[in-house]
Amino acid sequence: MSDNPTFEPKILGFCCNWCSYRAADLAGTARIKYPTNVRIIRVMCSGRIDPTFVLNAFALGADAVMIAGCHPGECHYVDQNYKAMRRYGMLKHTLRQMGIEPERFRLVWASAAEGQQLAEAITQMVEEVRKLGPLAWAANWQENGQRIEALEAIVHEHAEAMEVLA
Amino acid sequence: MKYAYYPGCSLEVSSAAYDVSVRAVAELLMIELEELDDWNCCGATEYFSQDELTACSVIARNLALVEPRLDQLIAPCAACYLNLKKTDRLMAEDAAMGARVNECLAAGGLSYQPGRVRVRHLLDVIHDDVGESAVRDKVVRPLAGLRVAPYYGCQVVRPAAEADCSEYPMKMDALFTWLGAEVVHYPVKAHCCGGHMTQLSEPMAFELIRRLLQSAVEYEADLILCMCPMCQLNMDAYQSRVNGFFQTSFRVPVVFFTQVCGLALGLEPTRLGFGKEIVPAMPVLEARLGAAPAASSR
Amino acid sequence: MIQHATDRRGSAFLREVIENTPGGQRILHCLQCGSCGGSCPNGADMQYTPRTVFAMINADEREKVLTSNTMWCCVSCYFCTTRCPQKIPITDVMYCLKRLAIRDGLAKDTDAPALAKTFTNLLDKYGRSFELGLASRFYLFNKPLAMLRMGPLGFSMFTRGRMSLVPKRIKNIGQLQAIIAKARQLGGRS
Amino acid sequence: MAERLGIYVCHCGSNIAGTVDVEEVARWAGTTIRDVVVSRDYKFMCSSLGQQMIEDDIGQQKLSRVVVAACSPHLHEKTFRRACANAELNPYLCQMVNLREHCSWVSTDKVAATAKAKALVYAAAERVKWQEPLEPMPVKVNPNTLVVGGGIAGIQATLELADAGYHVYLVERSPSIGGHMAQFDKTFPTLDCSACILTPKMSEVGQHENVTLLTYSELEEVSGSVGSFKVKIRKKARYVDEAACTGCGICTEKCPRRVIDHDFEAGLGYRKAIYTPFPQAVPRIPVIDVASCIWFDRGKCRACEKLCPTNAIALDQEDKIIELEVGNVILATGWQLFDSRKLPQFGYGRLPNVFTNMEFERLCNAAGPTSGKIVLRDGKTEPESVAILHCVGSRDVNHHEYCSAVCCMAALKFGHLVLEKTKAQVYSFYIDMRPNQKGYEEFYQRLLEEGMHFVRGKVAEVTDATRQPAERGKLIVQVEDTLLGRQRRIPVDMVVLMGAMEPQPDAKEFGLKCGISCSMAGWYTERHPKLDPVATMTDGIFIAGVCQGPKDIPASVVQGAAAAARVQGMIAKGTVMIEPIVASIDEKACSGCRICNNLCPFSAIEFDGEKKVSRVITALCKGCGTCVAACPAGVITGAHFNNRQILAEIGGALWDASPVLEDARAGADEPADEEAESALSAR
Q1: Which of C67, C82, C103 is where one domain is finished?
Q2: D481 pairs with which residues across the strands?
Q3: ipTM for the complex?
Q4: Chains A, B in contact: 3+ Cβ pairs under 8 A?
Q5: Out of A43, A52, A79, closest to residue D601 by CB
Q6: How close does chain D come to A157, measured CA to CA in Å?
Q7: Peptide bond before D352: cis, by omega within 30 degrees of 0?
């Protein structure tokens, strides 16, 4: 934990083309201000987000990753965001095993009209991650002291993850 | 059903009639009241106009005193009801404020988690929790022929229209229909009685009181039913002075809704604190309902 | 954001009121529609209707507002608050104005501060309010003449056992006073 | 082989340059990012000069990839793709960076914003290298169009298209077309009678050879995409055989069950259990309201059946599902009236002589329940004074924050009608008077002359609690006259509440069916608020009228016509090019596990039992990419969003974050090329 106020986390954001990316556009046209830490990548649907993308982002030094999609039941592709939701649940568990705090990986819903809400979610996440301090996962996780316990925990955590999926 | 009970200062002496009738009616309707031990005054509106934090802390002490096994608190006085509710909400909505209030409570070895206690008014407990059929079953002396004007005042229905509609509340109307009374349409039912203005500016306060009395007369109500000590005091105790001030001749009995409710449930007038009101209510009650038939009464 | 807006409007008073009223930033949204002034049971007696006061707050007319009778006409009936189409907590703004006026000794032609003080003094002392004590002290010090007129009322109240001669003190008054002391020390929103 | 990149950073005037140091970004990109051969900044990239610059570079510098850092791709991606195409570069080898909406407009700190801009440009540059030339897929445009909603906007759209010679299916939920306009008496500001101008259009729709009118029907399902939509429509049972019915009206006349008409007559009039909503209804074929019909209630009666001269009554009729194929869809689903009971201080529903605006329209209407006489609830007494309250449910954050746009003018119209038809005094209680279209201000002036009272103030309450004898038997309107700064109590006989326009209760679900979204207030979202107001984010779906936001008749007509024009454009083109963003499966590598099969909501993935492999049906695939992410063998590719491209983008976006660079960055604030490279080699 560091409360170093000068630390500027680097956060990667995945937005779906139809709701959240347009929400981000709306935040812009409405000139709503939020921190510059999040860099947004556009995919057609949150369902496209492959867990490897997230792991890769962390491996390349992202301090956090945000996934934003349409609200449940409002997916442009009927219900693909539910698939994103499930993958998210599983991935969150896995990441915890790897010593990554839950605050560093978030799934948010934002309709095309919710620029304000998306901006707020981003602002909040940046503040939380700033408190946590740098992740530098790729470098740290090798020497991560808790690794053994984490590995031990994996077994029943995995069971839980499966329940989330079921 | 068990509830913590916060009588409030007025119910101790000046509005004892409210207190006794509340307890009596509650008992009959199986509303178990457990008086808060060593509660303190809520500060009415007076503390908020001086110092918000002290106001909230003083009020929060009472919320903190509610036993963990109870999660609802009944306050019959409108001002107390609002203050308790307002403080709870303020602490919940403004986390910083909540923290500071708790810091103050800590000085007295207390603490309160906002939202833990749900503050209720007896009227809405009778209407929602006890309910129509249970009430109707208990009626031994229907109020047939009695024309009542239900007066809700301000602070139970506003600002949060939680206990009832903030503009045209109906729960007391409903209750007295169940009790067999004739409920008159009383357009000013949620208007202001003047509150502490009687102490500050009589012309202002008297005009407000006049509007309430006049409307009751216009709609030919036999009496006005109150659910707040301040309202009752203003309309009852000041009625003669209002008459003096406007050269009017109002003579409208103003009593607490629990008193008349008690009658319908068969309780003895004496057990309901009748006779404490300045404009006597018994004459009109007896005229409409006839003397209490001892047999059926409890 | 609030800071920004108040600075832009250039009214220090606006910021002061917003900062001292829970939910006060809604004042920025006043449409000057007047549903507050229309709703107020004492609106007719107010020097300035609440709507006008909001305009004056925007115009930084601090002294004029705090010496006016507007907030002292407020009886906390909350009609303005529930009807305001912009969700401005008007009654709470009035409380804020009362606090500021009392704190800066600007309250004019009203006994409200005195009444409030007498009331809370009794509360601090006994933990309960005490009508006779309140009435006698308040009237004695503020409107001795009115006291005579109150005589008959007091008497009829007394004969009906609706007035006690002795104040009641709560058991754990020490605890309450400790809490109050702490609150005073921390200093409340004024 | 190394690609040759061109980077183009747009100032967008000061929109981007104001918060992002665009020169620096361009300079930096040129020196830092591999394979960049040109990197420029320019005031307005989207201008013809800007585009020309790009085209020239592609030719002269032999660019193989282009990155344009400007605004949202949703705004200008087409523009720059076209520029590339002009210079014989495949448009899909151009990538946009959203510097304006996602960076400059949302940031204040120029240094931080510039850093973010660099990362975004880097990401795009890395991604574009992996992009592949694609060809958009041509789709023939079905010339038939579906219009949903038979109000004035839908009618206008229908006629524009039908007159142009194209076939239109007009679907209307209620038994007749006409919408709210059919209920009105006069229309502002010209005061011509609503029926007189509307009914001709209605019958035109009814008789038009190019129009298939489906009333008492609802859109159930929309599938497919622009050019070739498939729609399912539920034709609700009318219990009347449309072919046989002549609309003679005997059934209605003889029907013994009379009920209050809450729809067309706004509760002021009656109708029969079998009815046509109003005399000029189109079609003039009645419907049986099952809820009030004696036969459906008690199994007796059948009067209509017995007396129908053409045996058109069909009590055993059932709902029908109709399937249609259309190229485009126009939604003109309209609005509903705010429920004034939500503002109890105005007493609607409690005080008899408080009316809603829709009730008042019917009172004024010569064909209405009082044959146009303005009278109190008792049906006979003419009011001596009328109060009209503006903004009931509008401009009120407790209900609707927006302004309903039509109420000021409607209130003036009402005022005029009262002054014309009665001797009454009329008061308008307004917050702000907004007569802001052609001829509207003049109408306001006219009412000032005609003697309408105007009180600036939102009414606090309407009450029957009197204070002076003069107030007895009146409704007292209590208000602060904000221009006098004084509270007033004005006794009147009648109060009219100008209720807000609200979105249809099912607007949201309905929008989802068609793949379009709603604003926070619940109105359909247009593609661009100024430049593309009738198109939506979904190609081939257009919106018109109030469903897009509160507006009056002229504005609705304009939108109806505009939407029709857009559709005609599509039809005239004959074919539309749709984005080739679809999934494909490498059949040689597919293990046939079938995990992907059930993931597709459009059943665009079929399983080949012979070869034991899955295959994507390109025509059905909408390109969401869920199957791509799900394939355990990684043999499904999502065109234009494949793993290589996205991973490259991730690497680029984090070019300055990679731990490998940590120390290096500590030294030089400007990393040299090989550092940038090693950052990427971490991938």
Answers
A1: C103
A2: D486
A3: 0.85
A4: no
A5: A79
A6: 22
A7: no
Q: What per-residue confidence (pLDDT) applies to D70?
A: 97
Q: Which of B158, B164, B166, B168 to mutate to test the interface with D (most CBs of D within 10 A)?
A: B168
**Residues 6 or more apart whose Cβ sits within 8 Å of residue D375:** D363, D381, D382, D383
C72's CB contacts (< 8 A; 6+ apart) are: B200, C98, C107, C110, C112
Contact flag A47-D650 (C-beta cutoff 8 Å): no
D582 interfaces chain A, CB cutoff of 8 Å? no
Percent of chain C whose pLDDT exceeds 90? 64
Report the chain D residue with the minimal C-alpha distance to residue B187. Answer: D465
CA distance D654 to A57: 8
Clarify whether residues C42 and C89 are in a common domain: yes
Range of the domain at C138: 112-186
Q: Does the structure show a pLDDT above 80 at D680?
A: no
| Cβ contacts of D114 on chain A, cutoff 8 Å | none
User: Which percentage of chain D shows pLDDT scores above 90?
Assistant: 88
CA C13 to chain centre: 18
Tokens of B10: 């007025």
Chains touching C by CB (3 or more pairs below 8 Å): B, D
Contact (CB<8Å) D482/C31 = no
- Please list, residue by residue across C83-112, b when 16 or more beta carbons sit within 10 angstroms of its beta carbon and e when fewer do: bbbbebbbbbbbbbbbbbbbeeeebeebbb
User: D98: which chain A residues are within 8 Å (Cβ-Cβ)?
Assistant: 24-25, 28, 40
pLDDT at position D469, please?
A: 85
Cα dihedral angle (D451, D452, D455, D461), rounded to 10 degrees?
140
Instruction: Identify whether the C-beta of residue A122 lies closer than 8 Å to the C-beta of residue A38.
Output: yes
The answer to whether residue C131 is domain-embedded is: yes
**Domains and their CATH numbers in chain B:** 2-120 (1.20.1050.140), 139-289 (3.40.50.11810)
d(CA D465, nearest CA chain B) in Å = 5
- In chain C, the number of structural domains is 2
Q: C112–B49: do the CB atoms touch at under 8 Å?
A: yes
* Touching subunits for chain D (3+ Cβ pairs under 8 A): A, B, C
Average confidence score pLDDT of chain C: 89
Nearest to A69 by CA among D92, D583, D626, D642: D626
Beta strand D453-456 with D461-463 is unpaired
* Burial class, B268, CB count within 10 angstroms (exposed 0-12 / middle 13-18 / buried 19+): middle
- Kindly identify which residue of chain D lies nearest to residue A34, measuring between CA atoms: D106
CA pair distance D116, D162, nearest whole angstrom: 52
Q: How confident is the model over B270-295, as a mean pLDDT? A: 85
Which CATH number does the domain housing residue C31 bear? 1.10.1060.10
Domains belonging to chain D, first-starting first, are: 5-136+642-682 (3.40.50), 140-230+325-334+504-578 (3.50.50.60), 237-318 (no CATH), 338-501 (3.50.50.60), 583-638 (3.30.70.20)
pLDDT at A163: 47
D487 touches chain C (CB under 8 A): yes
Interface contact flag, C39 D478, Cβ < 8 Å: yes
Nearest by CB to residue D395, choosing from C31, C40, C52, is C31
CB contact under 8 A, D658 and A31: no
**Which pLDDT score is estimated for A155?**
43
B167–D465: do the CB atoms touch at under 8 Å?
no
Helices within D18-166 (DSSP H only): 22-32, 48-60, 73-86, 110-130, 152-163
The pLDDT assigned to C90 comes to: 97
The gap from C-alpha B45 to its chain's centroid, in whole angstroms, comes to: 16
Please answer yes or no on whether A62 and D654 come within 8 Å at the CB atom: yes
Q: Is the pTM of this model over 0.90?
A: no
